[in-house]
Write a structure and sequence with these properties.
Elements (H helix, E strand, L loop, with lengths): L1 E5 L6 E6 L2 E7 L6 H15 L9 E5 L5 H15 L1
Parallel strand pairs: 1-4
Antiparallel strand pairs: 1-2, 2-3
Helix pairs in contact: 1-2
């Protein structure tokens, strides 16, 4: 299973994929508050879809064109969750 943190749009979005099939997605406001919201939103998203972090094999980040800081935050969180 793959978790994608998509920052390419105005609102951050989490996408859960199994192979090429999109299972679920979740958007929220706050591209510029990502350091405060990202971990909480990932936790809510995984609980809502009854997925454990151990089931996530890969985490990808789609970078933001508007905020390099948000992209770096998302990459740091993704790296931390992989460990």
């Amino acid at each position: 299973m793959i978790l994608i943190i998509d920052l390419s749009k105005k609102e951050p979005c989490l996408i859960l994929k199994q192979g090429n099939k999109k299972i679920a997605n979740h958007e929220w406001t706050g591209l510029y508050q990502l350091s405060e919201t990202l971990i909480l939103e990932i936790d809510k998203f995984l609980k809502k879809n009854k997925i454990k972090l151990d089931n996530i094999k890969e985490i990808k980040v789609v970078p933001s064109k508007e905020s390099m800081v948000s992209t770096r935050i998302a990459k740091a969180v993704a790296l931390g969750l992989k460990i």
